[in-house]
Backbone:
């Protein structure tokens, strides 16, 4: 143990969004990896109690800089925020520093170009000489360059959607999830620049020592949690002669476990299904001879 090393460096620190779309799913995913925290009164820093992994609750847009500065080791943030941050660095001649460690499968949205409802959209060339408001200047500039279009990028940190009505811009480039915000502002999405979801973000290079081990442990548990996120464990009984009609109804199941009960002809089966286990499916299984069907949630898996 190096006594000059500050204690904080022996703990892993993860930044997550304090409030907003990613806040709740990020917490529940980390909790499903066995992390538990003590919340402080200001609720910005949560001390990890079950593992030496602490949380910092921040604005999502601040997460890349916190990682780049080494204030936090990892972060749960939209891929769009991460790519924009690296794009800004590269545009100013610096090295990219971030790596997407894991895609997390929630918070899906897209960065889209949207124009006022009245426009007769004919393609990107129509943007030549126009002003486009965005909080994503690097991603937008990259896209414009790829389209060979020369347009003016108007940087706004928020309320991008009202820029055309205020006369600040002719079009916008913003995140779209449900599409409600665009519709409410009489804007129509006409092109997708970037598909996004929440990711576990970290530095390109990993860590040393204890933090490397903690990050590895976390990623292993994340893989286990993500793998079974939408999975269900299905339990039922059936007579052996019904197997040929039952197994085709479980195409998404990992090799079902079949146990013999009650002599040789009665079986107990358990199957981990990765697809949706709907009522319809249960009814089909019952018609095919399954009895005592039970559906259980799965919290994790360690292969
Ligand atoms: C985005 C975007 C829009 C809204 C679109 O903001 O800037 O305002 O979501 O969502 P909708 O298509 O479902 O209406 P976000 O909530 O990510 O907040 P932030 O950009 O301020 O972090
Ligand atoms: Zn944000």
Residues:
């Amino acid at each position: 143990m190096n006594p000059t090393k500050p204690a904080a460096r022996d703990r892993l620190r993860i930044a997550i969004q304090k409030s907003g779309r990613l806040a709740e799913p990020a917490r529940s995913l980390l909790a499903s990896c066995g992390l538990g925290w003590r919340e402080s009164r200001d609720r910005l820093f949560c001390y990890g109690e079950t593992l030496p992994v602490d949380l910092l609750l921040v604005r999502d847009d601040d997460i890349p800089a916190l990682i780049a500065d080494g204030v936090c080791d990892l972060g749960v943030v939209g891929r769009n925020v991460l790519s924009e941050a690296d794009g800004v660095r590269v545009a100013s001649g610096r090295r990219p520093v971030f790596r997407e460690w894991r895609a997390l499968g929630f918070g899906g949205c897209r960065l889209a170009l949207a124009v006022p409802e009245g426009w007769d959209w004919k393609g990107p060339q129509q943007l030549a000489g126009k002003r486009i408001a965005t909080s994503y200047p690097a991603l937008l500039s990259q896209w414009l360059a790829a389209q060979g279009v020369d347009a003016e990028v108007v940087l706004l940190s928020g309320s991008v959607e009202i820029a055309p009505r205020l006369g600040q811009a002719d079009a916008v480039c913003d995140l779209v999830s449900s599409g409600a915000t665009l519709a409410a502002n009489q804007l129509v999405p006409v092109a997708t620049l970037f598909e996004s979801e929440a990711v576990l973000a970290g530095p390109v290079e990993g860590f040393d020592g204890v933090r490397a081990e903690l990050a590895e442990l976390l990623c292993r548990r994340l893989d286990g949690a993500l793998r079974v996120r939408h999975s269900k464990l299905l339990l039922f009984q059936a007579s052996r002669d019904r197997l040929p009609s039952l197994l085709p109804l479980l195409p998404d199941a990992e090799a079902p476990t079949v146990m013999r009960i009650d002599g040789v002809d009665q079986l107990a089966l358990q199957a981990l299904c990765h697809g949706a286990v709907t009522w319809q499916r249960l009814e089909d299984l019952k018609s095919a001879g399954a009895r005592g069907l039970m559906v259980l949630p799965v919290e994790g898996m360690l292969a």
